[in-house]
Amino acid sequence: MRALIIQGGWDGHSPRAFAEAYAGMLREEGFTVETADSLDVLIDGLDGLSLIVPVWTMGSISESQLRGLLDAVAGGVGLAGFHGGAGDAFRDAVEYQWMVGGQFVAHPDGIKDYAVAIVDQESPITRGLSDFTVTSEQYYMHVDPSNHVLATTTFHPATAPWAEGVVMPVAWTRRWGAGAVFYCSIGHAVAELDVPEVAALHRNGMLWAARRSAA
Question: What structural domains and CATH numbers belong to the chain?
Answer without folding.
Answer: 2-214 (3.40.50.880)
